Amino acid sequence: MSHYSISELAAQFNVSTRTIRYYEEVGLLQPKRNKSGHRQFTKKEMTQLQLIFRGKKYGFNLEEIKEMVLLFEEDPTGKEQLKRTIEYGEDKIHEVSKRIQELEQMKNEMEQFLQVFHDELNQLEEE
Amino acid sequence: MSHYSISELAAQFNVSTRTIRYYEEVGLLQPKRNKSGHRQFTKKEMTQLQLIFRGKKYGFNLEEIKEMVLLFEEDPTGKEQLKRTIEYGEDKIHEVSKRIQELEQMKNEMEQFLQVFHDELNQLEEE
DNA sequence: TTTACCATTTACGTTAACGTTAAGTTCAAC
DNA sequence: GTTGAACTTAACGTTAACGTAAATGGTAAA
Predict the structure, then answer these.
(1) Cα torsion A43, A45, A47, A53: sign
(2) Percent of the residues in chain B that have a pLDDT greater than 70, as a whole number
(3) Residue A74 CA to nucleotide D11 C1', Å?
(4) What is the pTM assigned to this prediction?
(5) Which of A100, B74, B110, B111 sees the fewest Cβ atoms within 10 Å?
């Protein structure tokens, strides 16, 4: 009924249970517990884990990821709170945009480099 | 005359000299030495450091970066060698492309999330 | 030639992000 | 009710990527 155990989540995301417990340890997740103390995960935590792993893949460390996860987890009620959240979120989006641009530059440079090799290969094959 | 000391490079790239020595230690750089054993860096190493820091910024570890740096450093002479280098390089470009795509997806999701907050803010301000 | 700075190697220290082991608890099935 | 898999916490271990300290050497200015 929409509750997952820690090993189910671990299998889903192909990580160890230790990893998930560690994420709770550092405040990235706060799963509820059942009567006997076992963690109960829901779709909320699944979504958060998605964000975490995507962030990790792109060089953000857990502290940075934590900020982003918490940003989208808390329900900012009140105008001032909302405004600050939006501003912070737009900053984060800017960071991501910058990373994308620089990755594209990196890609371009790699393509230029390969072009040289391509030309050399053509030279060799024309003989 | 186009030779830089280790501390000049460190200042240029805003890292410690230890970092640069470490990169040599793990095989990312192979600077020449002068008579008294001091490292002599040239534009070649400057270019390699550029690649290294950009790679780091986007979540590649030093091992992966090493592959890429060595790929573009060695002069693949001979048709077979050239072909393999080109193929490997295209794989790496593919990886970068994938990262770009997923970063863009990440950005989209963040923008959607923020849109919700924006709407809530508008609701509050219409009253 | 002594001061001072830059270089060198060696080697131990540090932090993030887990891995691993141990010792105990709970649940599901038989 | 006993067995076995899955859960719990606690705590020590591991690796990458450096930081830092110590001991030493070259060189240029005072």
Answers:
(1) negative
(2) 98
(3) 33
(4) 0.76
(5) B74
Q: How far is the CA of B85 from the C1' of D16 (A)?
A: 27
State the Cα–Cα distance between residues B117 and A88, nearest whole angstrom: 12
**A79 closest CB neighbour out of B96, B118, B124:** B124
Q: Quote the DSSP letter at residue A41.
A: B
**What would the pLDDT profile of A88-112 be if each residue is shown by its tens digit?**
888 888 888 888 888 888 888 888 8
Q: Which domains does chain A have, with CATH numbers?
A: 6-126 (1.10.1660.10)
Nearest to B117 among A56, A82, A106 (CB): A82
In sequence order, the β-bridge partners of residue A41 are A4
Task: Output the pLDDT for position B8.
Answer: 96
Q: Between residues A21 and A109, which one has the greater pLDDT?
A: A21
Residue nearest to nucleotide C27 (CA to C1'): A36
